[in-house]
Amino acid sequence: MADSLKDRVRQKLQRRLAEDGPDPEQDDARTISVADDLAALEMVPTGDPLVEELALRYLVF
Predict the structure, then answer these.
(1) Which single residue of 23, 38, 40, 44 could bond 13 by disulfide (Cβ 3.0 to 4.6 Å)?
(2) Cα gap 36→15, rounded to integer Å
(3) Are the C-beta atoms of 28 and 20 separated by less than 8 Å?
(4) pTM of the full predicted structure?
(5) Which pLDDT value is given to residue 31?
(6) For 30, how many CA atoms within 13 A lie in the half-sphere containing its CB?
(7) Are the CB atoms for 47 and 53 separated by under 8 Å?
(8) What's the pLDDT tens digit per position in 11-49?
(9) Which pLDDT band, with edges at 50, 70 and 90, does 6 fall under?
(10) Using the 8-state DSSP alphabet, how is residue 4 labeled?
(11) Tell me, what's the pLDDT at 22?
């Protein structure tokens, strides 16, 4: 069974957060933005337009 677009976007955002890693010296704006997008993704249903918007933003196909 294929992953939904929402699942693929979630995986991409989680992977990006893991790859960037936390920086104890400062709050990285990119990391904060990705974390905020991931939180927003979790709050919407699968067919919500935000899922497609995030897929385009993070180049998820």
Answers:
(1) 38
(2) 14
(3) yes
(4) 0.85
(5) 86
(6) 11
(7) no
(8) 999 999 998 776 666 668 888 899 999 999 999 999 999
(9) very high
(10) P
(11) 66
- Rg of the chain on CA atoms, in Å: 12
- What residue type is 35 in one-letter code? A
- Axis crossing angle, helix 49-57 with helix 29-42, rounded to the nearest 10: 150
Q: Which residues contact 34 (CB under 8 A, 6 or more apart)?
A: 13, 16, 17, 20
Q: Is-contact 37 54, C-beta < 8 A? A: yes
Contact 38, 14 (CB under 8 A): yes
Residue 41 CA, chain-centre distance (Å), reads 7
What single letter denotes the amino acid at residue 34?
A: V
* 5 touches 54 (CB < 8 A): no
Q: Map tokens 């897929």 to a residue.
A: 55
